[in-house]
Automatic annotation (TrEMBL):
Binding site for Mg(2+): 531, 533, 536
The protein, known as: Acetyl-coenzyme A synthetase
GO BP terms in the entry: acetyl-CoA biosynthetic process from acetate
InterPro entries cross-referenced by the UniProt entry: Ac_CoA_lig (IPR011904), ACAS_N (IPR032387), AMP-bd_C (IPR025110), AMP-bd_C_sf (IPR045851), AMP-binding_CS (IPR020845), AMP-dep_synth/lig_dom (IPR000873), ANL_N_sf (IPR042099)
Sequence positions bearing N6-acetyllysine: 603
ATP-binding keyword on record: yes
UniProt GO molecular function: acetate-CoA ligase activity; AMP binding; ATP binding; metal ion binding
Superkingdom assignment: Bacteria
Higher taxonomy: Bacteria, Pseudomonadati, Thermodesulfobacteriota, Desulfovibrionia, Desulfovibrionales
Gene Ontology cellular component list: cytosol
EC number: 6.2.1.1
Amino-acid positions noted as binding ATP in the UniProt annotation, renumbered to this chain: 381-383, 405-410, 494, 509, 520
Length: 643
């Protein structure tokens, strides 16, 4: 049952309040969202029309006729609403003594100055700016600076390789890249600028590269192209104020690349008015953010969770958002709880993989600190298994705190299915119910709605303001990926069921996407990286259950004729994938295979490969269409030899 304490002041205080909001949002979605945006967002010009949409030839337009600026909403208006001296961002660097606090006034000034730096470099409304940065305040500052001048940011997670960065910059033709000398991680300094340099050898669109000095390691600078952040910001002609652009509601705010089941990562496009309204709205509904709260989302801003729930959602509401540069286990597994105590964190949002990793270290680490300031706990990225849920609830939540298990995706912009902490009775392992404005359903492969407890495809039948508006440069892919299979519905790619109480139980991806530690990896992407290696003739990648990561990457590799199998080659292939995509894509297991299970038409039977990877030795289902059924026993033998 939801806690009673905190209920009176909660944005949504009980079940009846949720039901009323939900009913209203379904009966009159346009009225509902118009009201919501008026409450949460300051428009320069009010929108004239709530919504225009078509899910067949997909086109979704929210709040047309309105103009606004995201940085204005996240900063300027808080200078006059009593929050000027409030902490907007509390930054905890990896070394404990590295703390920076930005009040709204301070953040405003930094953002305005950097917006002027970008303008000086010739960045104009609509231009793309790539950000390849560690978790340092300059990342949030650069995002907001882009939004101020109407430039589109494209953030590339700093754990991605030079090649991944290059592909993403090439796809969106960014004009400027902002990066840093290095990333500090678990006590080590990992140079970042060399990756940027390597990427930029193939990016003619990039005219300038701004470098933040984080670690002070020695790095080469390219004359005429590269300059230091601190020099640019200190230049005499950089003023403290930069007039915010008046953006149309449907102007692009950012692009974020994410993996799909086929081909290269796609640039998910999010726009201005709807996205801001939706992230702010869900910030209230799901995290019940209030003015005195210290809120901490442990994600990296390089992923959608950080975009929506470290930067845009919290700052739009004038909240205090904690940003952490380090990792949960360094210098010791109590790092998170030590930070919770140090800053009196009230709302804490993390991922099941983190919980499982900390669980393994033992409960004593949670007991070393006073974490009684915590009020709400959150989870995102994958289904949270009951064991991790209980551990989180008992040891971090002292057996009392609600855990909001939030289901959403890069494409959805914000949370779609989640409990509201004071209004929803929880069931461990269920993301509970659809949020107001979200028409979620489960359908069979023909698109027919299924009844209680029947597993099927999770779809959304009406637009919500935070949804993606396109795939950058590829309208066909936008249509076929999300609207192609079930006419008139958004297809999430996840499998789920709804129980008799209307609670959603998300099972995981139904396509060839693997979820490693809450990060989406496309199998096709990893396969194409592997086959690019001269020793590899063919590769098939599947997910394998993993205790901490949820899933890990299992690769079957067929070598070219004259190449010998060896341990060294396995190491080399792993390093190869790290370099092609990034460390998160590096396979946990590589099994050499003389042949792969293919149907007579040449299609790889992945379901068989998934079972073998999971250690299942029988029950392969119908294998009568296999061209060579003997392949299965060879693969089983190969796996046995591996372990
Ligand atoms: O399979 C779902 C899983 O993560 C996918 C989205 O990944 P990404 O776009 O990287 O965004 C992750 C953070 C929003 C979904 O298709 N997923 C995310 N949250 C949950 C989840 N699965 C179950 N329960 C969740 N709470």
């Amino acid at each position: 049952m939801p806690p009673t304490e905190g209920r009176e002041t909660a944005w949504v205080g009980d079940k009846a309040a949720y039901q009323e909001l939900y009913r209203r949002s379904m009966e009159d979605p346009e009225g509902f969202w118009m009201e919501r945006t008026r409450e949460l967002v300051s428009w320069f010009k009010e929108p004239e029309k709530a919504l225009e949409w078509d899910f067949h030839n997909p086109s979704i337009k929210w709040f047309q006729g309105g103009t606004l600026n995201v940085s204005y909403n996240c900063l300027d208006r808080h200078l006059t609403d009593g929050r000027r001296n409030k902490a907007a961002i509390i930054w905890q660097g990896e070394p404990d003594e590295d703390v920076r606090v930005y009040t709204y006034q301070m953040l405003f000034t930094e953002v305005n100055r950097f917006a002027n730096v970008l303008r000086k470099m010739g960045v104009k409304r609509g231009d793309r700016v790539a950000l390849y940065l560690p978790m340092i305040p300059e990342l949030a500052i650069a995002m907001l600076a882009c939004s101020r001048i109407g430039a589109t940011h494209s953030i590339v997670f700093a754990g991605f390789s030079a090649m991944s960065l290059q592909n993403r910059i090439q796809d969106c033709e960014a004009k400027v890249l902002v990066t840093a000398d290095a990333v500090l991680r678990a006590g080590r300094t990992i140079a970042l600028k060399p990756n940027a340099d390597e990427a930029l050898t193939g990016c003619p669109s990039v005219e300038r590269c701004v470098v933040v000095r984080r670690a002070g390691n020695d790095i080469p600078m390219v004359e005429g192209r590269d300059s230091w952040w601190h020099d640019e910001m200190a230049a005499d002609d950089i003023r403290h104020f930069c007039e915010p652009e008046h953006m149309e509601a449907e102007d692009t705010l950012f692009i974020l690349y994410t993996s799909g089941s086929t081909g290269k990562p796609k640039g998910v496009v999010h726009t201005t008015g709807g996205y801001l309204t939706y992230t702010a709205s869900t910030m209230q509904y799901v995290f019940d953010m209030h003015d005195n709260d210290v809120y901490w989302c442990t994600a990296d801003i390089g992923w959608i969770t950080g975009h929506s729930y470290i930067v845009y959602g919290p700052l739009c509401l004038g909240g205090t958002s904690l940003m952490f540069e380090g990792v949960p286990s360094y210098p010791a597994p109590d790092r998170f709880w030590q930070i919770v105590e140090k800053f009196g964190v009230n709302i804490f949002y993390t991922a099941p993989t983190v919980i499982r990793a900390l669980m393994r270290e033992g409960v004593e680490w949670t007991q070393k600190h006073d974490i009684s300031s915590l009020r709400i706990l959150g989870s995102v990225g994958e289904p949270i298994n009951p064991e991790a849920w209980m551990w989180y609830h008992q040891n971090v939540g002292k057996g009392q705190l609600p855990i909001v298990d939030t289901w959403w995706q890069t494409e959805t912009g914000g949370i779609l299915i989640s409990a509201m902490p004071y209004a929803t009775a929880l069931k461990p392992g269920s993301a509970t119910r659809a949020l107001p404005g979200v028409d979620a359903a489960i359908v069979d492969s023909e698109g027919r709605e299924l009844g209680p407890n029947e597993g099927g495809h999770l779809v959304i039948r009406k637009p919500w303001p935070g949804m993606l508006r396109g795939v950058f440069g590829d309208p066909e892919r936008f249509k076929s990926t999300y609207f192609g299979r079930f006419p008139g519905m958004y297809e999430s790619g996840d499998g789920a069921r709804v129980d008799e109480d209307g609670y959603f139980w998300v099972m995981g991806r139904l396509d060839d996407v693997i979820n490693v530690s809450g990060h989406r990896m496309g199998t096709a992407e990893i396969e194409s990286a592997l086959v690019a290696h001269p020793a590899v003739a063919e590769a098939a990648v599947v997910g394998m259950p993993h205790d901490i990561k949820g899933e890990s990457i299992y690769a079957y590799v067929t070598l070219t004729a004259d190449v010998e199998e060896s341990k060294e080659l396995i190491g080399e292939l792993r390093a190869w994938v790290r370099k092609e995509i990034g460390p998160i894509a590096s396979p946990e297991v590589i099994q050499f295979a003389d042949g792969l299970p293919k149907t007579r038409s040449g299609k790889i039977m992945r379901r068989v490969l998934r079972k073998i990877a999971a250690g299942i030795t029988d029950e392969f289902g119908d294998t009568s269409t296999l061209a060579d059924p003997g392949v299965i026993s060879d693969l089983l033998d190969g796996r046995r030899d591996l372990l």
